[in-house]
C-alpha cells in the first residue's frame, strides 16, 4: 500500500464546512468524485467521537480502496488501523511518531519552509504537505508559502510534495504548475452542494499535469 | 511495577490552578510532599506541548519512583513510555485502549455508576476512578457520585478504587471511610502556596485508614 500512493487529489476533512450534512456521506461523495486520498482532521472533539468518526470513514475509504490518513492523533491512527498519520509542526516530533507508527504506515508532515521540508524528509516522512499556498480561513495559524518556494521545495526534496491551503477551482492550476505531486483541498470540495461534482471538476483541471 | 501500585494519594495535574508557577516544579513539590502516583491531564493544548510537558514530568516521577499516568492520550503515553493511561467515558473504549497499551501498563477508567465500574473491570481496567464525590469546578461535566454509591462500588469491584472530585483537607476523611484505595486530588494540592505541605497534610489525614 505504501508505495505508489496517489496524492493527486487529497481531501482533508473539516466538519465546520459541511453544514448539517453527515461527514461520512460527504466523504463518500468525494470518493465517488475521485479524491485519491483522505485525511481526517478533527479539532476540539472528544477522543471517543474522533474514534467513532474515524472507524466509519475507514469503512468507506476501504470500500473505495483509497488510503486514509489521520491528522495529528497517533492514538486514533493506531486504534482504527489507518493507512497513515499526518503531523504538523505543533504535533508530536516526526522521528518519535515514525518509531511508534512503524515503517509500513504513511507518515506525512506539514512544512512551510525549506528547512522544515528537509528536516521532515530526514526524520522519516513519506510525503510533505506544503502551505498555505493561498490564503485560507480553515487553519487560523497557517503561514503563507509562495509558489516559488513551493517549486523550490519540490525540486529539493525526494519525497512527494502536496500543496495545501486555499486551493480551489480557480487557482488549482497555479499550484499544479509548480510540479507538486498533488493538491490538498478542504472547502473547494466539502463546502459545495454537489461534492462529487466539485471533486470531479478539480480532477479535470488536474489531468493535464498528471505524469 | 504494575502490581502493588500505591493509589493512596493520587495527584491529577491542572495547569489552570497553579497560577504562573511551572507545572514541572509543582509536581516535584507534590512528590516531595508524598503523592504516590501522578496523572497528567492536559486539555486544549497542542500535542507537541503535551508531549514536551509529559517528557519532563516523567523525569521527575522516575526520580521519585512514582508511577506516571497520562490522561486520555494513548499517543502521549506510548511516546514517553508512561506507566499507564487513564481514560474517561468520552475517551477511547477501554478494550481498544488495553489492546494498544499492552498488558503490562496501568489502565485506569473513570466511572460514575455501578454499571460503568463493572464494565471497566470487565474491559481490562487495572483501577477505576470514581466521582465526582464532591462538587468540583475542575471538570465541568462531572457527575456527582454519592458516598453510598462509592462504598457499594468498592464492595462490588475487585480492582482498586480511587475516589475523585472536590476532595480536600476538610472532606478527605469522609471519602476514605468508604474503604477506597486512594483519593485523587487536584486543587487541594496544586492550588496551594505550599504544595509539599498540602500533600503532607492530606497524607497525615489519610494514615489511619491505610491498611
Ligand atoms: Ni501502601
Automatic annotation (TrEMBL), chains A, B:
Keyword Metal-binding: yes
Protein residues bound to Mg(2+): 72, 91
GO cellular component, one term: cytoplasm
Cofactor binding, note field: Binds 1 Mg(2+) ion per subunit.
GO MF term set: magnesium ion binding; thiamine-phosphate diphosphorylase activity
UniProt pathway: Cofactor biosynthesis; thiamine diphosphate biosynthesis; thiamine phosphate from 4-amino-2-methyl-5-diphosphomethylpyrimidine and 4-methyl-5-(2-phosphoethyl)-thiazole: step 1/1
Keywords: Magnesium, Metal-binding, Thiamine biosynthesis, Transferase
Highest taxon above the source species: Bacteria
One Pfam family, short name: TMP-TENI
GO biological process: thiamine biosynthetic process; thiamine diphosphate biosynthetic process
UniProt cofactor(s): Mg(2+)
The protein's Enzyme Commission number: 2.5.1.3
InterPro entries: Aldolase_TIM, ThiamineP_synth_sf, ThiamineP_synth_TenI, TMP_synthase
Family: Belongs to the thiamine-phosphate synthase family.
UniProt xrefs under NCBIfam families: thiE
Name recorded for this polypeptide: Thiamine-phosphate synthase
Amino acid at each position: 500500500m505504501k508505495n505508489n500512493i496517489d496524492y493527486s487529489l487529497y481531501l482533508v476533512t473539516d466538519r465546520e464546512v459541511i453544514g448539517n450534512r453527515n461527514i461520512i456521506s460527504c466523504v463518500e461523495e468525494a470518493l465517488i468524485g475521485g479524491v485519491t486520498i483522505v485525511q481526517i482532521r478533527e479539532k476540539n472533539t472528544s477522543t471517543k467521537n474522533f474514534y467513532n468518526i474515524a472507524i466509519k470513514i475507514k469503512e468507506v475509504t476501504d470500500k473505495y480502496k483509497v488510503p486514509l490518513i489521520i491528522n495529528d492523533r497517533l492514538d486514533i491512527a493506531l486504534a482504527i488501523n489507518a493507512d497513515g498519520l499526518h503531523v504538523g509542526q505543533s504535533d508530536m516530533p516526526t522521528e518519535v511518531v515514525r518509531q511508534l507508527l512503524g515503517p509500513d504506515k504513511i507518515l506525512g508532515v506539514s512544512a512551510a519552509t525549506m528547512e522544515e521540508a528537509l528536516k521532515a524528509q530526514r526524520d522519516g516522512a513519506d510525503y510533505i504537505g506544503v502551505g498555505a499556498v493561498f490564503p485560507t480561513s480553515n487553519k487560523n495559524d497557517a503561514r503563507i508559502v509562495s509558489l516559488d518556494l513551493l517549486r523550490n521545495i519540490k525540486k529539493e526534496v525526494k519525497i512527494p510534495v502536496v500543496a495545501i491551503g486555499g486551493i480551489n477551482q480557480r487557482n488549482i492550476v497555479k499550484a499544479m504548475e509548480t510540479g507538486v505531486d498533488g493538491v490538498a483541498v478542504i472547502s473547494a470540495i466539502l463546502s459545495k452542494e454537489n461534492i462529487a461534482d466539485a471533486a470531479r471538476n478539480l480532477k479535470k483541471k488536474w489531468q493535464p499535469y498528471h505524469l
